[in-house]
Structures are given as structure tokens and as C-alpha cells.
From TrEMBL:
Species in which this protein is naturally found: Marinitoga hydrogenitolerans (strain DSM 16785 / JCM 12826 / AT1271)
Function: Sigma factors are initiation factors that promote the attachment of RNA polymerase to specific initiation sites and are then released.
Entry protein name: RNA polymerase sigma factor
NCBIfam families with a match to the protein in the record: FliA_WhiG, PRK06986.1, sigma70-ECF
Annotated Pfam families: Sigma70_r2, Sigma70_r4
Keyword Repeat assigned: no
PANTHER family xrefs: RNA POLYMERASE SIGMA FACTOR FLIA, SIGMA FACTOR F FLAGELLAR
SUPFAM superfamilies named in the record: Sigma2 domain of RNA polymerase sigma factors (SSF88946), Sigma3 and sigma4 domains of RNA polymerase sigma factors (SSF88659)
One Gene Ontology molecular-function label: DNA-directed RNA polymerase activity
KW Electron transport (keyword) present: no
Biological processes, Gene Ontology terms: DNA-templated transcription initiation
This protein's UniProt keywords: DNA-binding, Sigma factor, Transcription, Transcription regulation
């Protein structure tokens, strides 16, 4: 985009950038700073100014929002706060949840017994699982299966564009393979930006139950897309 005032663009987008950063921050550990997320969001916005192509039929606003979120997620993946021992426990919890059907609900007490940990530790694990999975699915949705296109690679290369289109198609298929309630949760959370608490009120289930269903959804999607 040419003949634009970057300062004006940043000023206009800053409230939305702060909103996106705050929405991410509420599920992140305390060592992640709001200002860092906002700064990464501004970088994403500036990148969108350079790369936006109106001929692709996407509004600049939609394109910029995607870039802003993507920049924040790239930053969070780079700092990678989870220690190995915690990662191992989270993997075990994921395996347990993956075996649950959509209508099943495994209590914190049952998880504590299976994992041989306290209920307090179960809550901590679930919080970390939620954080990592939010980033995981957001990365699939925003950066096409967590593939980073480096700055020295031509994003308009026909081969790259074709591969990204395939990944988008596969993601859509994977989401459509979910049952109706799972698809609704994906839509409400990722498209409507509702919290688990708000979704729980709509579905008349607890916030904890929504969180557990969300975890199961991500496990399913990652498997269908060939993720870990």
C-alpha cells in the first residue's frame, strides 16, 4: 500500500491490537508481557501494509487482523515457556482426553488418580494445556499448519500458494468432520471471539466442560492434519 501515513494506520488499529493482545494474555503465564504482544502486533500490522494485495478480494482490515494475530503467535512460539517435564505431563493428559467421547466428562479427581498427581496439579496442567492448545489451533488457523514462510521466500510462488491452499482445504475438511456441537464451539471461540464462560452459557454447560471439549477438538484436528 502506497501513499499512506503509517502513524495514522497504527493509531487506528492500536485499540484492536490491544484487544487481541489482552484476549491472548488472559490464558498466558505471568512472564508474558502485554507490551511485548502489542509490539509484535504492530510489527504484524506494518508487514500487512507491505504485503496487502486488494486484487485477492480480501479487505485490508481482515488481512491486517490475520497478520497481527499471526505475529503475536509467532512470538509466543519462539519464547516457548513450557519446561520438558511439564510438557511430558501435558502429553499424558492429552492422550487421556483423546480417548474421551464428546459426551464423556472426566473429573479432575479422576484425572488426578490416573496421572497420580494432586487435584491442584491437575488444574495447573489443564491451564497449561489450554494455553498451548490455544496457540496450536490458532497457529493452524492463521499460519496454515504452523508453516512459517520466511521473508526471503516469495509468498506468491505458485508452488507455495498451491501448498497453502491444500492445507486450508484439509483444515476445512477436518473441522467439518467434527460433530455439530464441536463445530459450534470452534466457530464461537475462533470466529466470534467468545470466552469459554460465554460459550458455556450458550450451550448450558460449565466453563470447565467447554475447556475439555475444546481440548478434545484440538487433539482431533491435529491428528487429522498430521500434527503431533
Amino acid at each position: 500500500m502506497k501513499n499512506i501515513n503509517k502513524d495514522d494506520i497504527i493509531k487506528n488499529f492500536l485499540p484492536k491490537i490491544k484487544y487481541i493482545a489482552l484476549n491472548l494474555l488472559h490464558s498466558l503465564p505471568k512472564n508474558v508481557e502485554l507490551d511485548d504482544l502489542i509490539q509484535e502486533g504492530i510489527i504484524g500490522l506494518l508487514q500487512s501494509l507491505e504485503k496487502y494485495n486488494p486484487q485477492k478480494g480480501v479487505t485490508f482490515y481482515s488481512f491486517a487482523i490475520k497478520r497481527i494475530k499471526g505475529a503475536m503467535l509467532d512470538y509466543l512460539r519462539k519464547i516457548d515457556w513450557l519446561p520438558k517435564d511439564l510438557r511430558h505431563k501435558i502429553k499424558k493428559m492429552e492422550e487421556i482426553l483423546a480417548k474421551q467421547n464428546i459426551d464423556d466428562y472426566i473429573s479432575d479427581e479422576e484425572l488426578a488418580n490416573i496421572l497420580d498427581i494432586t487435584k491442584k496439579d491437575v488444574k495447573k496442567l489443564k491451564a497449561e494445556l489450554h494455553r498451548s492448545q490455544i496457540l496450536s489451533l490458532d497457529s493452524f488457523l492463521l499460519t496454515n499448519n504452523e508453516i512459517n514462510i520466511k521473508s526471503d521466500i516469495n509468498e506468491n510462488d505458485p508452488e507455495i500458494l498451491a501448498y497453502k491452499d491444500i492445507l486450508k482445504t484439509e483444515l476445512k475438511k477436518a473441522i467439518l468432520s467434527l460433530n455439530e456441537r464441536e463445530q459450534l464451539i470452534v466457530s464461537l471461540y475462533y470466529e466470534k471471539d467468545l470466552t469459554f464462560k460465554e460459550i458455556g452459557k450458550i450451550l448450558d454447560i460449565s466453563e470447565s466442560r467447554v475447556s475439555q471439549i475444546h481440548s478434545s477438538i484440538i487433539i482431533k484436528l491435529k491428528k487429522k492434519l498430521g500434527g503431533d
